[in-house]
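worker-03 picked up job from queue 'complexes'. Input manifest follows; two sequence lines, order preserved.
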Amino acid sequence: MDRGVKKISLLHLGIGNVGKEVVAQIQAQKDEIVKQFGLDLVYCGLFTVRNGVFAPDGLSEEKIRNDLSEARYAPVDIEKMVLHAIDEMETPFILIDTTASDSTFPFLEKTLKKGGYVVLSNKKPLAGSLKQFENLQRLGKNRIYCETVVGAGLPVIQTLKNLLITGDEISEIQGCFSGTLGYLFSQLDTGKKFSEVVMQAKKLGYTEPDPRDDLGGVDVARKALILSRFLGQKKELSDIALTGLYPKEMGMLSVDEFMSEIKKLDDEYAEKVKNAKTQGKVLRFVATVTQTDCRVGLEAVEKTSDIGSLQGPDNIIIFKTKRYFDNPLVIKGPGAGLAVTAAGVFADILSSAQIITGGIHE
Amino acid sequence: MDRGVKKISLLHLGIGNVGKEVVAQIQAQKDEIVKQFGLDLVYCGLFTVRNGVFAPDGLSEEKIRNDLSEARYAPVDIEKMVLHAIDEMETPFILIDTTASDSTFPFLEKTLKKGGYVVLSNKKPLAGSLKQFENLQRLGKNRIYCETVVGAGLPVIQTLKNLLITGDEISEIQGCFSGTLGYLFSQLDTGKKFSEVVMQAKKLGYTEPDPRDDLGGVDVARKALILSRFLGQKKELSDIALTGLYPKEMGMLSVDEFMSEIKKLDDEYAEKVKNAKTQGKVLRFVATVTQTDCRVGLEAVEKTSDIGSLQGPDNIIIFKTKRYFDNPLVIKGPGAGLAVTAAGVFADILSSAQIITGGIHE
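worker-03 finished. Artifact:
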C-alpha cells in the first residue's frame, strides 16, 4: 500500500441484491479510489439475516466474494455478531445498511455513539417512530448519509440539505417516488384497464409479490415522511394523509382473491382517467410536502407539467423554495434499480470517508 | 465561542453581485453553522479588482459589511495583497473566487500548493488553457470545488463526479446552459421575430451589454469544455465545435451597428423555426459532450423532449450513462441568478469546510 493511504473500515448489513452490487462496485473501483483519494475502503464485516463474516483487520478477497445467502456457516446469533463487530472497530468506521429491516436501529445507534458513520439505503430507521428518528439525529446528524432513501441514486437528499443549510426556505417539495406506480399510470394514460395493467406489472416483476404493497402507497409515504422530518415536521407515519389505490376492505383478501377482484376497480379508474383527460390532465401518484403538511395520493395533474409528462418508471422531485420560486429545481430519472441505488450508496460511502479522513492533501 | 468549534478562514476574491450575496448568506447562517456543524466560517480577506481588506485573525463585522466598490481606501497593489494574504493564512483555509477574471490562476495555484481549498464560481481558471486546468488538477484535484460553474446552484458537478468515481460510464451529457438563450428560443417558439426578441432581451437586461457575448455561445462552450475535461478529454476552447447565432462578419460591427443590422437575420430564423415546427420540433441552443466529442450550437429537437419542453431561462442537463441508460438522469431549473449561484458557492464552502475539519464528532 502506498504511503499516506488511509484505511476506512466498512461493516455492511444486508448483502441482498443491492448489497451485493455495492460490494461489487466498491471492489471494482478500489484501486481508483486509492489513487484519486488516498482512501483504502476495507471490508471488515458482511452480514445477512442468517449469516455473517467478520475480521477486524479486513476480510480476504475470497470471503468478500462468498455468497452469504448459502448456509455455508453454522447458524449464528447475528445480532450479537454485529454488536461485537461494532465493538471491535477502531473509530471512525462506516456501517452500511442496505437491508429492508426495521430492526437495525440498535446497530446504527451503537455505531453513532462510538463516533462511526452510517450509510443507509434502508428507509425504515428514518421512517420509524419519530423518537427513533430524533435519537439518530441527536447522536450524529452529520454522520448519517442516506441519499438513496428517496429517488435511489438521484441527488435528492444532499440537494435538500444544501438548500436548508444555506438558508433557503422550502415552500413545497412535490414528486413521484414510485417507479412501479409511475409505470402503472403511464400505462393507464394509453387507455388500458387498471386490472390489466396491475396484472401485467405483477407478471413482469415490477410490483412486489403482493401488489398491494405498492398500491397501498406506504413506501411512498415513508419517503414523504423522511422529507417532512428533514423539514422539521414532527410527524409519525400514521400522520401522513395517505390515500391508497384500493379500498380498505380489499386489504383483508388473500393475494389471489385480490388479483381476481381487482377488476371491480376498472370502471372507477376508467372514469377518473376520462375525467382527467377532458381537462387536459393525467393521473399520477403524488407526494406533497410543505412546511406543515404531508400528503400522498392520486392526483390529476396537467399533462404538460413536469409531473404529468413523467414517463414509465421514472421518479421526479420538484423543490419550490424562496430562491427557486418562479421556476423550481427539478430532478428526474430512474428512482429504483440495483446499479443506480448501489452507486448512490457507494457515493455516500465516499463522501463520509473523505470527511472521516479530513481530506487528502496532495 | 463554544468548546469544540473549529475555525475555517476564508479569503474571497470578487465582491461583486454574486460575491456580496455569498457574504450575506454566510453571515446570515453563521450561528446555524456553528450549531449544526461546529464550524465557524471566519472572513479574513475580501478583495475586488481595486480594493481589499485583510486581517489574518478575522475581519470585523464592520469591515465585512463595507462596500469595497467605493474607493474608500488608498489604491493598492491587489495582486501583491492577495498573495500576501495567502502567505499569512494558516492551512487549511478556503479561497473563494467569484470573479469573472482570467487572472486568478496564480492565487488558486498558491492556495493549492499551500494545502488550502478553493471554491470557484469563476469558470475561467477551469476553461482556460488545458495546461492550466491540468496544473490545478495535479495540485489539488480533490480540493477544488466548482459546483456553480455549470447550472449555478443545480447539482451538476457533484452528480457527474459521483457517476465517474462509482464506476459508471458516461455515454453523453447534453444540455442547455444559457438562461439568456433559453429565454430567446422559448420566445421564438411563440412566433416572434429574432431581432425583436434579442432587442427585448437586451432592454430587459437579460443579455450582456453586447448581446453577441451571449449569441456567440462562448460562455456555453466554456461550460461544455469544463464538462469534457472532467470526462478526461484533453481539449482547448478552440477545439470545441461551436456554431454561434450570428455570422462571423457581424462580429466586426459596433454594438449599435449590430443591433440595427440584426433584422437581416429574421428571415433565416423564421425559416428555421418553421422547418422545425413542421417536424414537431423546436430550436434550442444545445451543448453535447460525449467521450470524444464536444459540440455547441443550434439544434432542432422534439418539442415534447426534455430539452424541447424547456421554458424560459431554465437550464437543463441530461446524463446518459451505462447505468442511466433507458431513462437518463435529468436536472432542470434556473441556471443563473444571484441567490441560487451564491447558495451553490456557499454549499461548496460548507462541503470543503467539513472535509478540512475531518467532520464533527457529536
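worker-03 released lock.
The mean pLDDT of chain A is 93.
Residues 53 and 340 of chain A are 26 Å apart (CA to CA).
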